[in-house]
Here is the input.
Amino acid sequence: MVIFLQGCREDDPCPTCFESIVRCKVNGKEWKSNCVSNDPLFGCRAVSCYYYYNSDFSLDFFAGNSDNNSTLVMNQYSINGGAKLGLNSVDQNELYFIDRSLPDSNNCSRLKNLESTGSNIFEITILDTINYIIAGRFAFTVSNNCGDTIKITDGYFKSKFIF
Here is the structure.
């Protein structure tokens, strides 16, 4: 008599294949994080995420788009309560957009003036401290001192984080 015992495991078939993603609409136009680099030594990263869940819940999150040379920044500082699972309060200089196609004089490329319209959202929907994955949604409107305004809608992010 022969007995076969087989165990089933639902492990990720490719644990190193995870790709961080950020997507949203910038003034109604699709925007997605990506990274194109000609630097063979250092390259670049489409998303950089640091989340300090063991101490103060601070989040440093940067997503770049090499196609249009722009960056989306979503920081949640501990002084304002940090970033926790669920809806988070949004404060000035925590959510902003860098558009390098705008003039750099007078710091016009940084759209950091968060509009206080009540439509600013930053929500963490997944916080996996075992696999170091954070995901959520966002929407906000920012302007600069040069009269430009950018409305970010339908935002979604999912990323590995370093703590």
User: Anything to note?
Assistant: The chain is about 0% helix and 45% strand. The radius of gyration is 19 Å. Residues 21-36+44-160 form one domain.
